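User: Is it possible to get a 3D structure for a protein together with its bound compound? The compound here is magnesium ion. I've pasted both below.
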Amino acid sequence: MEPDNSTDSRASTCEPQTLFGIGASPGIVVARIFVLKKHTHRTVWKRLDSGQVEEEINRFLRAAEQAESELRELRRTFAGDLADALSIIDSHILILKDQMILERTVDIIREKEINVEWALDQALGRIKKRFDTIADPYIRQRYVDVKNVVDRVFGLLSGHEEDVLTGINEKVIVVGHDFSPEDTLRMQTENVLGFITEEGGMTSHTAIVARSLNIPAVVGLGDVTRDCVSGDTIILDGFFGRVYLHPTPDQLCQYREYDRQHRNFSEELALYIHLASETLDGHRVRLAGNIEMRDEVQSVLRYGAEGIGLFRSEFDYFNCDQIPDEDMLTSTYSTLVSTLAPMPVTIRTLDVGGDKFSRYLPDSGIRPGVERNPALGLRSIRYSLREPALFRTQLRALLRASVHGRLRILLPMISSLSELQHVKGILLQVKAELTRKQIPFDTNVELGIMIEVPSAVIMADSLAKAVDFFSIGTNDLIQYSLAIDRGNQYVAHMYEPFHPAVLRMIKQTVDAGHGQGIEVSLCGEMAGEVVSAAVLFGLGLDELSMRPSAIPHVRRILRRSDYGQLVELSHAVLSCNDGGEVRNFLTRYLPSTYPEEFGCR
Ligand code: PEP
Ligand code: MG
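Assistant: Yes, that's possible. Here is the predicted structure of the complex:
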């Protein structure tokens, strides 16, 4: 990336313009922009003398090593926090070491006696071809990660690995085509107030990192870099995914006021870490944290979570170079359960397949590109049932950890009662085995299922009789009910959490769970979105589980609400006819009901 300081006649002649993108990270910013142009590496072909080949290979390996040590350094800087961002860096480190890049490039230099830049470009070209043939769009898009990593090495080889933020010496909103997760992490300086990208969706890496860093962001804005130049003042509204280019004086004045209110308000949010999660009239909702790694347990406590509502256990299988054994898993789960005790800790069993793979897991045919429809294929619980030894190991570890506090075991992607009964049968056998061996466990350990496919919603009343709790996974429930691939940028605009079909399914699940006296939680991304909080409370959920940093804000909304009004709100949105109608309604309702959160727009 390089700063674009060119002057553009469009800038002075442009009319006020409102652009609609995706509000990837909440917040309002009014500031000047700093446009970063996409940097392209020009690759020259150079034939080497035979005597130069080994030195050329060493030059490449040194650059790759340096790239790795830079990534590790960046990772260290943020250690223990920002887990989502860190797991992306980990994956980039793995890519860097992948033989498709390292060995391929070395082989090409050696075989063809050509310079490293050319060889690396060739290796990248082959990788691209392979990615292009992958049917699953999410995995196909992960080529972006490979490209990010290779671009970093190119930069080091050319000696021009410039810091993307060089030249930013005032507080700005950064605008660019897209940023690598590492670029985004580096934006955590006081000069970057927000950012805007042309590419990306709610689940793109830029969006995930922006949310981890609490930097307001709007992504997926098409050709925005064409329509603005560095120095223009714009308004970024990360709540509603709007950007005002060349705003009118009135808009500026209005948004500067929202901005001011919002800043004061952000400072006040810290107070909500320690307050009870209840409405003005005493209705309580538990606010819990979603985490992927054991190290994040501190951030769960720091933000005042009342438990862990979702531990995505599969990340333990991704972050090391072997399958964790029973003792390793027991130690992780015990740490979580004992650190949070007596608060509940919900650990989800392995949820691999779909968009999540590990080369260390037994290959049951779920290698990227092998399945035609991975999201509908050997995913989640289906994989665990196909790999019973692996599954039993995890269940044993969970049961062993259950003696340290309140553990809740959560099964992902259950789609029928018989599937659930199958798992319960295995769990009974594992319990019997532990009893035989006199290994202690909590005989009353709670068992719950994720409600993330429509069949589970429809059968929720039957399923509720067989479990202790439900946890609604809206990330997948939206994907499966609206037929929208959650990682596909071309249909990202149709991925609508406020689709009345989704809201009605949540309500149906809550009613079915409550009908059988069990708790219903929601742990999809929408649980941590301030625009959805009031609606979700009104739908009657007992727990919302979200990225920990969102908890104080969501709690504030709860504490400013009257439960009767929240229920009325839920009735209003449930009677809407489509997602746009719900959003329009909320665009009016939320700012007038919670002016400090949303500004009086
Ligand atoms: C979900 O689907 O909403 C969920 C929380 O699970 P994941 O995002 O890990 O699929
Ligand atoms: Mg899911």
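The radius of gyration is 25 Å. Residues 452, 473, 475-476 surround magnesium ion (ligand 2) (CB under 6 Å).
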